[in-house]
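Handout, section 3.2

Students often ask what a structure token actually looks like in practice. Rather than define it abstractly, here is a full record for Glycoside hydrolase family 127 protein. The first block is the sequence as you would receive it.
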Amino acid sequence: MSKSIPFQHVDRVPLDHVNIHDDFWSYYIDLVRSVVVPYQWDALNDRIEAAEPSGAIRNFKIAAGLEEGEFYGMVFQDSDVAKWLEAVSYLLESQPDPELESTADEVIEIIAKAQQEDGYLNTYYTLKEPGRRWSNLAECHELYCAGHMIEAGVAYYRATGKRKLLDVVSRFADHIDSVFGTEPGKLRGYDGHQEIKLALVKLYHATGNERYLRLAQYFVEQRGQKPNFYEIQLKERGGESHWTGINHAIDLQYSQSHAPVREQEKAIGHAVREVYMLTGMADVAAETKDESLLAACRRLWDNIVSRQMYITGAIGSMPQGEAFSFDYDLPNDTVYAETCASIGLIFFAHRMLRIAPQAEYADVLERALYNTVVAGMSRDGKHFFYVNPLEVDPKACRGANHKFDHIKPVRQEWFGCACCPPNVARLLASLGEYIYMVQGGTIYAHLYIGGEAKLNVGGSEVQVKQTSNYPWDGRIRFEINPQEPGKFALALRIPGWCRHARLSVNNEPYPVDGQVIQDGYVHISRNWQQGDFVELVLDMPVERMRSHPLVRGNAGKVALQRGPLVYCLEQADNGANLHEIVLPANAKLEAKFENGLLGGAVAITAQGLRQDAAKWPGGLYSSEAVPALQEAKVTFIPYYAWANRGEGEMSVWVRETF
């Protein structure tokens, strides 16, 4: 008999209650504030000459009657502005910035003017196809754009207390509610690119209006019902498709509309849509205490992380449709692994943690965060990866074999489809939300990120100060300062990658065993007083990681991981033709912090072996004895840091000999 879930209430930790002071993460958060958000503002306003134009801000100005012209860009271009505003909101919630707030207010004024009298807000349909609203839900992203704007409206209200954008999105949500539903005269449709559900739950939290929760629940339940709404609309359009050569209304698996969500057995179709769908499902399950909906979330979670996830926390292995493929199909060189997909996986993991604090969710969240998400942005904050391969040969990217066309050996300044850069910005700007959680009388520490937090435990404030040199070192210190002495628990995650952990409270050893570990968290329950401190030491050796035997591309290969970080070979350290390198199973792996390496990082070195192409006997094929492998020093760097030193080869997996 399955265990019943208590569905305890969990309050969001406000960002102004968390101050991150961390050698690793402070750099990226400061980069988002000082470089990424201003850079993206310039990109949205078409002020970066070398980057593809956006047109996103101008579209809103035209729709608002402030400029003349035609719509430019993708059908979902509005969402880039919304995600930028959401990132700005998180920065403002963390730290006031009058100049940035003034810029955001100006954008919000334009958005408000672009809203139609009935509450509708979408510049593509307002400017380009004004008479065809809601006519192509499968392909044209109206509800996706609405969801991102709703998220921005909620975030800006939380940050500033200003209601203008919140009122705009509430009017829009009211309009959507008047259009969709099972009542006579309403459309029985649902979002093509999932996003609206999780946004509506946020709007419900901000306003207390249960109408928005019911609408989110409707969109969850209606998906995949028969007759299929996308097919009905396709017939009404006479078979017309928005995209050349693609018809998303026919491929129902692409948008996870092939079956009702409770009946879906495996992750399938467009990867970002899948994890956004699951995030919304988890939100609705939590709010409605729906255990069968939660069971569907868990089933699809298990399929993703145990059969369809890369070691870097990347998902969506197939470029066709930016999609999941089949179980264990995880190629390294043709992988898609969109940055947004890993961000969506983090959203989903975080929602599952809030329902049931189990370390497996935080482990995956951490894996995706420290590897794929950070890799999605360069250290200068001005270049981005849309696709995150695990093996790159620049010659292949420029060659005649078009299966590598989507792979870029260096990060790009911007994209015509620019969903990933502002998504990275909004996630990193809101990182403070992901570190701690309070459930009942327990403070959960999900992530080991230095700084201070003010947390509400049973109506009393508790200040938690965390210091560490994570992810380079596994020694973490917590100082606990409750407003009033009292009994509660501190639950610290023991990561799945850690084989041995040590713990002390006020310098007294504390057991780390099955009696105090629950679902991967060690619980310290005691009467806490000001100045109490806890020290956790996580062993962090270099680990050789191997794939499931059914992952064909990794047969006979090994990858290195240390703590939460996955490592890779890069041409800058090891020269070209990385495929020639072999790592003996008995090779000693040396980990050393290098101050001058990409802002400071632990590199791993070993005495490896290498095949020398110059000593090949001759010809394309040969029956002659192959020359012995030569000893060669090999260097591995953290995967997130690759492609910051110019163009070159990269590989996560390396051949292994025994």
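Discussion prompt for tutorial groups: The two ends are 45 Å apart (CA to CA). How would you have guessed this from the sequence alone?
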